[in-house]
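Risk mitigation, structural track. In case the binding assays with MGD fail to produce interpretable data, a predicted complex structure has been prepared as a fallback.
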Amino acid sequence: MERRSFLKFSAALSGASMVPSFVFAKDLNKSLVKTGKVKTAAHWGVLEVETKNGKIVSSKSALNVSPYPNPLQNYTKDLVENSRVKHVYVRKSYLANPDSPKPELRGTEEFVKVKYEDAIKLVAKELKKTRKAFGSQGVFAGSYGWKSSGNVHNSRILLHRFMNMSGGFVGSTGDYSTGASQIIMPHVVGSIEVYEQQSSWNDVLANSEVVVLWGANPYSTLKISWTSNEEEAQKYLESLKNSGKQIYMIDPYLNETGRYFGDKIKWIPIRPNTDVSMMLAMCYYLYTTNNYDKDFIENYTYGFDKFVPYLTGKVDGVVKDAKWASKICGVDAKIIESLAKTFKDHKTMLMSGWGMQRADHGEQPHWTLVTLASMIGQIGLPGGGFGLSYHYSGGGTPTAKGGIIGGINAGSIGNYDENGKFLGLAKSDFESKGTGQSWLQKATNYSFPLARIADALLNPGKVIDHNGEKITYPKIDFIYWVGGNPLVHHQDTNTMVKAFRKPRTIVVNESYWTPTAKMADIVFPATTQYERNDITMVGDYSNMYIAPMKQIVEKVADSKDDYQIFTDLCKAYADGLAEVYTDGGKDEFDFIKEYYDGARKQVLAISDLGVEMKEFNEWWESNEPVKFNSTMESDSWVRFADFREDPILNALGTPSGLIEIYSQDIEKMAYDDCKAHPTWFEPAEWLGMAKKPAKFHMMSVHPNDRLHSQLNQTSLRDKYAIANREPLLIRSDDAKEIGVKDGDLVRVFNERGEVLAGVKIYDNLAKNVIVLREGAWYDPLDPTKKSICKNGCANVLTIDKPTSKLANGNISHTALVNIEKYTQKAPKLTAFEAPKGV
Ligand SMILES: Nc1nc2c(c(=O)[nH]1)N[C@H]1C(S)=C(S)[C@@H](COP(=O)(O)OP(=O)(O)OC[C@H]3O[C@@H](n4cnc5c(=O)[nH]c(N)nc54)[C@H](O)[C@@H]3O)O[C@H]1N2
Ligand SMILES: Nc1nc2c(c(=O)[nH]1)N[C@H]1C(S)=C(S)[C@@H](COP(=O)(O)OP(=O)(O)OC[C@H]3O[C@@H](n4cnc5c(=O)[nH]c(N)nc54)[C@H](O)[C@@H]3O)O[C@H]1N2
Ligand SMILES: [Mo]
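Fallback model:
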């Protein structure tokens, strides 16, 4: 999976084919259906979009598998029409003098419309200048984001391909989703777990007696996938709901899943960021009642004996019993103990989401959960253990047998002589010369954990600890971002704005006037996925379908495909580069056919598959996804079953080959904020702290009605906005205490910033917990200074601090805020309008 290859960044540098393997898609019907029904696919599913005279009239699921609706599927028209960047723009001072472009005015100044060709020349020239002055480590193109589906028009990879071939760039490691867990889990179980296939849902439904949703909201978060959504997991979720099993939700917020399950779920409200205390108390209870699986601990884990003295308080004088935990987490001690016993005495699947690891010391919750699961002793058995990805991308949907399509790759480093003449691509990473080589040697020194982006921009040269290594931040003077919205997704927006005013140049390809596009110097209008042809897998773990992504409407105004923009940048950058970038001049159909044919070849080689893949032209014409079926093995697959069967032959990828409750590797790092065994640490801000800086704990959970910031500009917003702002969920007693009521406009604030939000009374929250979902477009009242966000962007209030020196993940679910009624005249919302000069 591409997501995983983010981690294996160097691997992505190799392998651009130089062979002109031209595949002529002759006689292919490439015409646009002006009036009719067309199938495509997006993160939120395979779609059937109806058009009339070249305009979209409706959009819905083409699969109709999910038992409940997914509103994200119905707003394709708005996604094509609303808030579009229609032409190429350059910020005024940048255009006047790119050498001294007044970066401090970014986001405040007017834009000037320029000719596409001129902007291409400008970017090529300024990129060269930056590389000459700072080397390739001056260029940041980590460019994180959820972009769109499609294996050809994959904006982030297309950017990397351009940046590699033109001489190299600084990348980033990790992501916002699982920053903490994807680093700690390899130390604990030898794999990242968060992006791995789960024990089959069929297994859970057949064999689990108890299912725990521990900080997970699958009803909501299963609506999307990294490729496209096959909707199967929603079906399993409904089966679970109706299964009669004991189902628990341990969460400060009875979320959409909790409401969907209704009286079939038992909600255990917990204080945010305190789960580790509860898990430790469960471990303590099982230990002291002698009701834990000693065989499993003995044969499958390492270091339990070094963890026990911490658990019992021998090392720090604190006994981690239920009474101790109850004071921290707010869950009754009796309930903690009885849950521990229930989990131990029944076949229990502990399903955890990722919210709790997107918090201060986010390495600890999943490590402690695995420790608890080890004491329960059901890991690797049918229906038991833990799973960190049932809520995401259809995890647990059995993997189908069939073909897998290829995709555009990041290419390899280009070689250039002293005069900037392109000499071709490096054959291997180590054969490169010139700028390419100097960058490659330094690459490992300079790419940094993604969530440290603001810190890196503000503190070039600073050395940080990361997972046993030292990392030096480069001096970044040029940023190119595509397919992401960092001004919305990064924590502590006011600091991020400062950071984004540091580099000399920022280039953004965007379809919409997002806060990030507004903070750029040069904005290229990118087509949306509905204005181009592409192909995608459907089902990140299931690989269930190959779907055609047929263009639905004409390209809007001057917008261009990212592929086109980067091809033109190659032409302007060096002679011969575009030839290589496009693999000898391929267009989107050449690639689509190549990827499809690759999968078809795999399918033809499997004798008993029973699925036919048509010849490409015929398939494209049919406009139907190809469906593959799961196998008997995948239907009943159990994660860790092989390890359980033979822990020596199927050893885990940890130093001991076992589950590490104690890690000597981490011990060697000697970090004060991540010890060698699961540990309870007080978060930077939480409800139990001694001198609380604010009254409420804000959870900026993922939105049911968006994909992050995507779709905020559509009319779906009318269904959830309150007082024309992002809704803020608050308990009626909490609301009463501060004198606000349903529908009120409120100011939410702390020392980091302030936002406007609309009050929605919701009683199923832990005391003093509020929800303000992430992804509302940042909309400052006065962009020239630190000012209130008029739309309710949660990250204005979050903390830009790493989880620990181990993982450096973000801590977006750790933040205290105050709330008061907004008494001034409500300012006009401008989040979705174009900036000055446009
Ligand atoms: N407070 C708080 N903050 C969070 C989180 C949280 O829980 N709480 N969660 C974090 C997580 S897990 C994530 S993954 C991030 C998500 O952060 P992002 O991935 O940055 O969020 P998106 O809104 O999906 O942004 C994608 C952008 O890409 C653009 N785009 C789409 N397709 C294309 C294309 O083909 N070409 C180009 N050029 N652009 C395109 C879209 O218009 C959109 O602006 O947010 C993180 N931020
Ligand atoms: N519809 C939709 N689906 C999505 C996304 C989206 O934006 N919209 N984003 C996708 C992406 S990129 C990602 S990374 C995943 C994110 O998936 P998750 O990270 O699992 O999602 P969150 O909403 O952040 O948190 C899930 C639950 O954890 C709870 N939680 C938060 N903090 C704590 C805590 O300290 N303790 C406990 N016990 N619970 C806590 C929240 O209240 C919430 O109910 O979702 C994916 N799916
Ligand atoms: Mo994410």
